[in-house]
Amino acid sequence: MAQEAAVPLIPMAVWGPHRLWTKGRKKELTKRHVPVIIKIGEAIPVAGDATPESITATLKERLSVLLDAVQRAYPDQPAGPDDRWWLPAHLGGTAPLPKAASV
């Protein structure tokens, strides 16, 4: 779409809302004071001759960096061992990997 429209991609990572609405857990949409971090990356120009694979690879790389940054900057920590469900394993949590969560 960006290529056809001759516009850049704007990568963005959001961390925090998953604590309110997560597959397999009770929705807590009225819970207050749950931090949400949004980080917007630099625009990614999309060349007219770029392949979809190269565009996707660049976007994935940028999103990965942004996601890691918002996860590490998140101000809340789990309240205890049973509250680690929302953190990814590489940060000491028990959240499932995306492939397992999509089933």
From TrEMBL:
It comes from the Bacteria. This is 1-acyl-sn-glycerol-3-phosphate acyltransferase. It comes from Actinoplanes philippinensis. The lineage of its organism: Bacteria, Bacillati, Actinomycetota, Actinomycetes, Micromonosporales.
